[in-house]
Amino acid sequence: MTIPYCDTIILSDLHLGSEVSRARDALRLLEHHYFERLILLGDIFCDLNFARLKKDHWRLLSYIRKLSNPKRGIEVVWVEGNHDHGLSLIMSHLVGIKVYQQYVWEYRGVRHLAVHGHQFDRFLTDNALLGSLASAAFLLLQKLDFRRQRFTKLIDRLDTRWRRHSPKVAAGALAHARAHNAQRVFCGHTHQAMQLAEDGVEYFNTGCWIQATATYITIDEEGAQIHEYAERSDDHYPGEERGDPAAEVAELPGAAGLLGDAEYEGVYS
Ligand SMILES: [Mn+2]
């Protein structure tokens, strides 16, 4: 029944507006954690069409807005993704959250960097020099090229192909982190949760919330950890006989992965 505490919680790629967005689960996750900082690491929205947002999607947005109330003392950070591009300015007014291209912070003497990751999937970043060049170039390119943005969206829809970009994004992120003297770097974008370490820099990918397996990252004094979302047993009233969890989640496409043991587990150690 204890509510877990962490310093920072990071999630990405909710794709609100998409039929398969697991907004309700994401809301539960946030309600069942104490944290000091929330990082929304890009592609929180699917596209500009707000008419596609469902009740659960608005509920989550409204909760995020509440969290960002200064009285709560929680820092809510939105890092722009390729799907969020252009939306972010509107959302910063609507939801009242500051939007960043990348976000850098210190925690316990460790420099952390969060960037969505789409910036790295078209650069050769297999060495540090190219990595730094790519790093410098991406901010510029983002401002310049609208056509490229459209192309990126097209690629984004091919979700299964997308996963192939995983190693590329990881390599780009690691090089980018080294160029910015960060010891930990976080990306989303690939929809595939993963972690690796290279030359003293740790890379984490947050995964996504549009598949059977939804993942998020927590950071506390023990480090950063990837978790798979699982429904908690205390989501149900104590003493009440637990109903069929399948019935409750059946409306969620690909929800089969939810029905594991009702505990949060670090699955990628
Ligand atoms: Mn993306």
Biggest sheet: strands, sense, closure? 6 strands, mixed
Which fold does the CATH topology refer to? Answer: Purple Acid Phosphatase, chain A, domain 2
CATH architecture: 4-Layer Sandwich
Choose one word for the global shape. Answer: globular
Q: Which ranges are low-confidence, i.e. pLDDT below 50, for 5 or more consecutive residues?
A: 123-128, 138-148, 150-161, 236-269
Gyration radius over CA: 18 Å
How many structural domains in the coordinates?
Answer: 1
Strand order of the largest sheet: 4-3-2-1-10-11
Mean pLDDT: 78
How many β-strands, per DSSP?
11
Q: Which series of helices and strands comes N to C?
A: EHEHEHEEEHHHHEEEEEH
Please identify the top-level CATH class. Alpha Beta
How many angstroms does the end-to-end distance come to?
24 Å
Query: How much helical structure, as a percent, in the residues?
Result: 25-40%
What does this protein look like?
With 269 residues, this protein is α/β, with parallel strands linked by helices. The protein has a single domain (5-239), classed as 4-Layer Sandwich (Purple Acid Phosphatase, chain A, domain 2), CATH 3.60.21. Helices cover 30% and strands 22% of the residues. It contains eight helices and eleven strands. Strands 4-3-2-1-10-11 form a six-stranded mixed sheet. Strands 5-6-7-9-8 form a five-stranded mixed sheet, with helices on one face. Strand 2 (34-40), helix 2 (55-67) and strand 3 (75-79) form a beta-alpha-beta unit. Helix 1 (23-31) runs parallel beside helix 2. 39% of the residues are buried. The model is unreliable at 123-128, 138-148, 150-161 and 236-269 (pLDDT under 50). Manganese (II) ion binds at residues 42-43, 81-83, 116, 118, 156, 189. Manganese (II) ion (MN) is lined by residues 42-43, 81-83, 116, 118, 156, 189.
